[in-house]
Amino acid sequence: MRSRLQTLGLTLAFLFALGLLLRTQEAPAFRVQTIVIDPGHGGDDSGARSASGGQEKQLVLEVAIRLRTLLETQHSLRVVLTREDDRSLGPDERAAMANNAKGDLFLSLHANAAPAASVSGAEVYYSAFDASLGELPPPAAEPIALVPWDEAQARHFDMSARAADIVHEALQKHVPMSARSIRQAPLRVMSGAAMPAVLVEMVYLSNPAQERAAATHEFKDRLAQALSEAVERFRAFVEAQPLR
Amino acid sequence: MSRRRVVQIAAGVILLGLLAWGATQLLERLVDPQPEVAAVVTPPATPETAHITATLFHGSPDGQALVPVRRDVPLAADAAAQGRQILEAQLDAPPPPYVPVIPRGTRLRAFYVTARGDAFVDLSGEISSAHSGGSFAELLTVQAIVNAVTANLPSARRVQILVDGKEVDTIAGHVDVRRPLVADMSLLRDR
Predict the structure, then answer these.
(1) DSSP per residue over A28-58, as a string?
(2) Of A115, A185, A188, the CB nearest to B101
(3) For chain B, is the Cβ count within 10 Å smaller at the N or the C terminus?
């Protein structure tokens, strides 16, 4: 009887140890390898303009290039920019570049404007879907699926919401945030992105103090640092997800 | 000739004379009718134009939200005409202390509502070319237009924005307006 109990105990201990070993060797269900950074506007489309002539298209490109450097050098991520110079790109072209690159996160960078100069601070947006159009399609479970172009983002709704939270938390530590700094909106550029997608409005160019700050290297570096930390935290979150 | 006979002849002559005079007067009237005396017509009192009280949406004084603002607009005969009246009022500059969320110079080109409840608001190109840009400012613009229509016209459930008669992706590069939009009060505040 005693030897039987010892055998049973040893067997259970062996199975427990084996389970622990297998768990530590299990590969993550998803890997984050490619980040698509989308500097908004460009070319004929200057985006928001400040009173002194500062242009959104230029500011977002400068931050995007800084962020690429950080992600490549500090986090060994593959980074794709939808534009690297001052050129016009339509929203579908941007989404197509992201999808063709098989991006794991789409970060669209913008600068904001408001009807009153007092409004200030960074804001993070993720997609909203019109309830009148019906239910959201199921989450992207299948690696290969035929998805209507307009529904591409809808399938990543949950992960986009989580990514927006993570970006929001990281930005809070580095730059001033607006009164309502995380929002949902039906934003065109994200609708065709077949991956988690977030749009960051980094600063209000309609606010004179923010406009002056945004023109400094220090502010652009802080923004890039905050976004780089957010990407790293998003990667950690995604790769900790259990295999479905 | 008896005296009696003379009186009868005289009466007949007078009677014939009267008949001749009457006939002459009648013929004159038929040939040359007298102008009618102009009636003194008092113009009817101008009826007071009927109005409805519409809810419009302008920027709050601090620019952080939309605020509902009540304003009288002329009562119209049907939903399309009423919608035009409401949108014309919405495109006007807001009263102080509210701030405009629709670019100055934007005009309403057309407005109609389908039987399915989809309203089409066709605006002039200034809505895009004169827009300040930025996701937030663009959201305020789109929601002000959509909410002004759906809050005041029961027959309109959704609103499709057109620019210069054409469907567009966005007004200023951010908010997706390719499809009809439902009311969104998420940016609304009391004042």
Answers:
(1) PS----EEEEEE--BTTB--SB-TT--BHHH
(2) A115
(3) N
